[in-house]
Specification:
Layout: H1 4-7, E1 11-16, E2 23-27, E3 31-38, E4 42-45, E5 51-52, E6 58-61, E7 67-70, E8 76-83, H2 87-95, H3 102-111, E9 114-117
Antiparallel strand pairs: 1-8, 2-7, 2-9, 3-6, 3-8, 4-5, 4-7
Helix pairs in contact: 2-3
Protein name: Cupin
Length: 125
């Protein structure tokens, strides 16, 4: 089977370790589509709290709107597609092991055209 980015330019498969802390991101120049392939990561668009999304879920992250990604109880795999391409590769570096500390996370995101929004995330009761 061909890698997803060979078939669909601007696509990246991400591995999200279990328990990856939630971070909120913003892409000002690209839309991003996340498709859950395995596991149940917590995803949100806008100011709402991240919620577990089962395999097969699709989340559209429009440019200029914040969105968040967090690991669930087990590792997860997501397909990320950027329009135009770019933020999906940065997101793969940000969520994959090893975890980045705050300063490294912000710097890596900025290098790839994403912003990390540092306001606290609301929790699901």
């Amino acid at each position: 089977m061909e890698p997803i980015d060979a078939v669909l330019p601007g696509a990246q498969v991400l591995t999200l370790p279990a328990g990856t802390p939630a971070h909120r991101y913003l892409a000002r120049r690209a839309d991003l589509v996340l498709v859950v392939l395995e596991g149940a990561p917590a995803l949100a668009v806008g100011a709402g709290p991240p919620q577990a999304r089962p395999a097969g879920s699709v989340v559209v992250c429009p440019r200029g709107v914040t969105w968040s990604v967090a690991g669930g109880p087990a590792p997860a795999r997501l397909a990320a597609v950027g329009f135009p391409s770019g933020p999906e590769r940065t997101l793969a570096a940000l969520v994959g092991p090893p975890p980045l500390d705050g300063a490294a996370l912000v710097a890596a995101a900025a290098d790839g055209g994403l912003e990390v929004v540092l306001e606290p995330l609301r929790r699901v009761p």
